[in-house]
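Action item from last week, closing it out:
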Amino acid sequence: MHYDHYHPQVASGAPGDGAALYGIRMIEDITERKRAEEALRVSEERFRVALKNSPVVVFNQDRELRYTWINSPVLAWAEQDYLGHTDEEIVGGEEGGRLMAIKQGVLRSGIGTRTETTVTFMGETHYYGLTVEPLRDAHGVVIGVTCAAADVTPLKQAALERERLIGELQEAMARVKSLSGLLPICVGCKKIRDEQGFWQPLV
C-alpha cells in the first residue's frame, strides 16, 4: 500500500516564509517604483530642456480650468499669481471668455482641438496657435486639459502687413486704370497728351 507523506513546510510554508515573501515583494515594488520615478525625472528633464527658451508655452488646468502648472509664464501670466486662477481672472474680457469656451468644449467632448486665439497685454495684441488636449487620469476620466500655446505674432503681423500692401497696390492700379480711361497715355513712353496736344511726362 502506498501512503502520501504530508510535509507541513511544503503545504503551508515554514514559519516566517510568508513574511520573507512579503518582504521580497515589497523590495521589488519599491525598486520598480524607483525605476519609474527615475524614468519620469529623466523625461521631465528632457522636456524642460526642450522647452527652454522656446516660444511654446505648455500648461495644465483642472476641470474648473484653474491653472495648476505652466512651464514658462509669459505676458499677463508672468505679472501675477496664475496658479489656482482661470483665464477669465487673468486675461479677462472677451479674450478670457473665448479661451474658457475653447477649453470647456474639450472638457465636454473629450476631443482635442487646435485653433488660433489672441491675448492683449499692455495694449499690444499677441497671436497664439493654441492646442488643447484632454488630461485623463489612470482610469481614462477627463480631469482637466493640457495646452500648448505657440506665439505666432511675428508671422501674423507679417501676413497682415502683406495683406495691407496688396490692398494698397490694388487701389493704386484701380486709380491708374481710371486715369487711363480719361487721359490719352502713350504706351511706349508713358507720357500723357495735354489739352494743347503736347505729350507731357506722367508725374
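Closing note: Residues 17-51 form the longest helix (35 residues).
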